[in-house]
Amino acid sequence: MSTDQVRLVSKQMLRMLKVFNFLVYGAIAVYSTFFALYLKDLGVSNVQIGLLVAGGPLIGLVANPLWAYFADRIRNNKRILIICLFGNFICMQFVFMTQSYIWIYSLMLFFYAFQSPLFTQSNSLILNVIDGTKHKFGEFRAWGSLGWALIAVAAGPVIGWLGIRQLWIVFDVMMLFAIFFTFLMPSGNEREVKEKFSNSGYLQVFKNKKFIVFVALGVLISIPNSINLTFLGIYIKDLGGSSTMVGWSAFATAILEVPVFLLLDRYLKKQSSTMLGWLIIIGLLFSFRWLLMSFAVSAIQIIFIQLLHSVTFGGYYYMGTQLTSHLVPSQYRSSGQAIYGLTWGGISGIVAGVLGGWMFENLGAALLYQLCFGVTLVGVVGFLLLWQSSKTWESGSRIPVAESKASGG
Fold it and tell me: What is the DSSP code string of 131-199?
């Protein structure tokens, strides 16, 4: 791309984008890392926690694509993020006010309706803001990993001091900061695109066989990851760990994502066959990670195993986001990212919550992670077959914008 073709974006806009990612990922890290422990302290069983967690992906199956549709139609990711963050904050206030499982479950369904699109909408906002510039996705998404890692590890001793019942204080502070900085963000859709949004073009996103097969295979990789994310804190506690150690496990989970994102920005070839080849390698590393988790006998071992998260989830997340952007036209980018996001928070999350909770309770952690090992290997085989057929992808790989205007993007 020549200098004349590079779109200029203000430094202030880019700085706010980084701060926002740091804060919103930090806020969700507090919830994801410690909420299961909060529920355990209320006397909620592992099966009930699994059922509650499964409710989120079930709601997300509808909410995530719906929010993405509106974001693409009104061309304003920022407005959607503001609505969702406010919804998150308000719903959790009511959750923290009750100890009734029925009320918590009911309120969390509303929470998930607002929580499910946060990551995909923030990704779409990044991609839209930097589209046509010299900037790359990883340098902004890395700030999200920093926020997740640093806030989670800082929150551990704070929650240990305040008590897990005071989790609402830490969550509220982080969420309010995230909401404030969202108002300083760009809308994410300032740049004009050649083709406008249309319902017929939107439906093509769901008809692209290559993209849908990729998403379906991703479910097999993400089910074990969702199980691990949900029950990791409880597993650490069962092995004698503390809230501080749970925080350090989240730190280990995210901190090394930063160099992974930056290295991928610099060296990864943005070609479908190349990215699919790397997804096979990452899937094998995921399998190795779950096998190690099945043999863990102490909390400290789990923390060290969690270091593999940077190359497994970090690498898969980055390449999946880029591959989605490669396959889906820019005017439907939010919808494409929402469908990809369902890989990690949709059907896989439902299976992880319902079956994961039951297996953790009745089969034990060791056998659970061995089953995760097997499921991931099935996904690896699927990606291998997809990679073999990907040589013809590079030409005309995007989804047609509409049947009457099938020029791609």
Answer: TTSS--HHHHHHHHHHHHHHHHHHHHHHHHHH-GGGHHHHHHHHHHHHHHHHTTS--S--S--SS---H
Alpha carbons 205 and 208: distance in angstroms, whole number: 6
Rounded Cα–Cα distance for residues 89 and 44 (Å): 22
The enclosing H or E element of 263 equals helix 257-267
Q: 407 in the Ramachandran plot: left (φ > 0), alpha (ψ -120 to 50) or beta?
A: alpha
Look up residue 3 and give its two tokens: 């200098």
Distance of alpha carbon 56 from the chain centroid: 13
* DSSP code string of 194-253: SS---HHHHHHGGG-HHHHHHHHHHHHHHHHHHHHHHHHHHHHHHTT--HHHHHHHHHHH
Task: Give the type of residue at 284.
Answer: L
CB neighbours of 59 closer than 8 A, spacing ≥ 6?
Answer: 109, 112, 113, 116
Question: Cα separation of 386 and 379, whole Å?
Answer: 11
Instruction: Please tell me the distance from the alpha carbon of residue 334 to that of residue 84, in angstroms, as a whole number.
Output: 15
Return d(Cα 325, Cα 312) in angstroms, integer: 20
Tell me how long the chain is: 409
Q: Which residues, at least 6 apart from 28, have a Cβ–Cβ distance to it below 8 Å?
A: 115, 118, 119, 148
pTM assigned to the model: 0.70
Rounded Cα–Cα distance for residues 339 and 67 (Å): 11
SS3 letters for 76-143? CHHHHHHHHHHHHHHHHHHHCCCCCHHHHHHHHHHHHHHHCCHHHHHHHHHHHHHCCCCCCHHHHHHH
Sign of CA dihedral 34, 35, 40, 41: positive
Residue (of 196, 130, 187) closest to 332 by Cα position: 196
Q: Which tens digit of pLDDT belongs to each residue from 65-109?
A: 788 778 777 778 888 899 999 999 999 999 999 888 889 888 988
Per residue in 330-362, pLDDT (tens digit) is 667 667 777 777 776 667 777 777 788 788 888
Token duo for residue 334: 């939010």
Q: Which of 159-168, 227-236, 242-251 has the lowest mean pLDDT?
A: 242-251
